[in-house]
Amino acid sequence: MLVPIFFIILSIVGFYFSGLTGDFVFQQMILRLARNLVLVMSLMIPIISGMGLNFGIVLGAMAGQIGIIVIMNNGYTGFNGFLIAVLVATPIAIILGYLVGKILNKAKGKEMITSMILGFFANGIYQLIFIIFAGTLIPFKNKDLLRSSGDGLRNTIDLISIKSSLDNLLFPNSPYPIMTFVVIILLFVGIYLILKTKVGQEMRAVGQSMHIASVSGIDVDKTRIIAIIISTVLAAWGQLIYLQNMGTFNTYNNHEQVGLFAVASILIGGASVNKVSWKEVVLGTFLFHLLFIVSPLAGQNIAGDAQIGEYFRVFIAYGVIGVALILHSWEENKKKSLNLNFDLNNS
Amino acid sequence: MALLEIKNICKKYGENQVLEDISFKIDQGEILGLLGENGAGKSTLMNILFGMPVIHNTGGYEGEISVDGQNYKPKNPTDAMKFGIGMVHQEFMLIPGFSITENIKLNRENTKSSLTGKLTKSNKLNRLDTKSMKSDADEALKKLDLKIDSLLQVENLPVGYKQFIEIAREIDKTNLKILILDEPTAVLTESEARDFLEIIKTLADFNIAVLFITHRLEEIKSITDNIVIIRDGKLIETAKTADVSIKDMAKLMVGRDISTSRLRKNKQLDDKDIILELDSFSVNMPGEQVKSINLKVRKGEILGIGGLAGQGKVGIANGIMGLYPTTGKIYKGTNRIPVNNPRAALMDSIAFLSEDRKGVGLLLDNSIDLNIAYTSLEIKNEFLKKVGFFNVIDGNKVKSHADKMIEDLDIRCTSSKQNTRFLSGGNQQKVCIARALTLKPDLLLVSEPTRGIDIGAKNLVLETLIKLNEEYNTTIIITSSELAELKQVSDRIAIITEGSITSILTPEDSDEKYGLAMSGKKYEEVTDDEY
Ligand SMILES: Nc1ncnc2c1ncn2[C@@H]1O[C@H](COP(=O)(O)OP(=O)(O)OP(=O)(O)O)[C@@H](O)[C@H]1O
Ligand SMILES: [Mg+2]
């Protein structure tokens, strides 16, 4: 509980010094929650399955982006375009999730660092494909997507043709992304329901003790792969929701921060490496993005330099991840060291 | 035709031949006792039968097994369950964060069809039917006469309960034909163990075959039909239980005679030099409550604490260590130490080896020598040497100390560098004991020190305790449900009934006196002095 309280206080102080109006901040927060909640939510199931923080959601984000690139290339627009992007991205995310799951099963106990490295590695391949192969090996119909030299995708791609296509579906004139929130709620309910099924029970069992789960006949490796697939698919959808809300697409940057920001959010919300619920997801996303909005201005007003606030924010994002991971390993060690044998956990 | 028949089973862990040419049979409704020293290969054999992953990750086994005449080659526990084989493992297989119900139904959850399930036509995506799961669990618990709320989390339950929950899980399996019990009574008190044996008999009456491992030979004598004795991985004897006396069993197991004579030389103690005083000391430990006792322990003494199960003897040490809610005063010498504070007790040079051995808390992926030195290293900064500005672990010291312990306690291992994960259960316990002894605390609390230790090695453990006491003047409070063992080592023995100290007796006192004290009768003539 300490972490969220600390950040609540920090946000209140930041808000006070930013000089922003409550109205503006409220508007911004609604947008940012809609944009980011699904990405953060995608971390839940691996945590429950005992795999820690899945930095591999970066691969899911890439799958989502591939969906976007495909519809932009084929000229699909509006909500139909968005749906097609989902249909393209989902199988790609499933395949990527399967691969990540397979690899993480080979690296039990080191899932977090492994998934982080996988993210970097996948980023390399992504760049190879879209800088070198796009336009050369991979033909593109829509030449506007390519750089003037005819190879490689542009740095930014305008998504005006699908902007807010989900947000404003059915409610075209609302300033709020109503449909996106409906989808978010449905996805939360979906996760809740999955956790109530037998698969969910197996995930929790695996999360608590792989050894006992396997002795009870649960296929541990398969359960873990399923968890990562769900996570990756949610991340792909999350990235699509993010992009349709933003309306622009930074071809080579958008996915890079996804893992870090989502992980920082969920930790700020008070989740730990092995415990989480929807409340931490919502609270954490809220606080992390509130800091996003207020810290540059607060920095400007306190220190006369917006950069300071910006540094501060980045520092916090990485800092909170670092601290959470250190605390985790410290607690694990403490559990082992103090006792002769009244360790209540099965070793 | 035998229900289960195993033929010429051999198993190697690396170069270590753990089982060699083992063959025997078991029939429906038969209770077969499996006997052998710590490290003889009992658990390994059972792990083979249950298809445990550890067997297959280490190269599998040789030989043949058949169930009901059908060839049986288990590759994983699921295969075993399909053939109706259930197992209660030597270490707990309960998920601490799950409820009793969830543990009993683990991977056999009842489901009711739901949308996600219907859409995917997969039972795995059906919703859990928590109601019927609970009622199944309750029914299984009822068969064991266990009155407990099945929605409680397993984590904080007393050890005895946990064992019954494991049994409940097995009998909830409808096709159960063969039940493997690997030292199920090692964590139970005597009266719990008695109930447990009754349950096993009932199961056998329902035609379930039971493979029963224990180091308590009276248990073997009282419920098994036949016995199989293994020594160093080789079959030594198969016989009808009725034809072999307990003494012969012990001899066959360890290959020599076993003595149970008193080990302690009587010691001169100073009645004024009190190292521990408990004043109106109460402990609220479920099932083992201590009610406002007063007790003084003399420096250098070995004090035994005995009594029947559930009367509170176990609660005393747990309370001193602050593991259960405690009230009253504890003085260590003249120092008052706070109650409910495990760290304070530890820092005050009090060490505790708990009766809860299944959560042994060993660092399983570290070597034996490091495990033995670990707590001393952490708490007392021992086994360190200076290199420049840094304190680093003195590997030689750690190793030579461990080698000595390995010899004293006869820990069966390949070397002190072996990881504790690869030791047999009994030998893991010896490592725990070695770790506690290494701390050389002023006051050592040991509960059930010889549980799970084979009858040949018991005396070694007790002798090592006495040696520690003699060499370092360590005061020892030993809690045990085995009166014979208390008499072997203690200077005085306090008998606890209904949470109070009924009498404090000497080892020479007659069995009648002990009997009276245990039944809670406070006759003047049985009390000794007012300590
Ligand atoms: N996973 C493993 N890897 C390597 N060796 C092992 C492993 N498990 C057990 N052993 C070795 O196999 C031998 C037999 O061990 P096992 O656990 O079967 O003994 P046990 O008869 O059950 O003893 P106990 O009464 O102490 O439980 C021991 O020498 C042990 O060190
Ligand atoms: Mg064993």
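qc> Chain B has a mean pLDDT of 87.
qc> done
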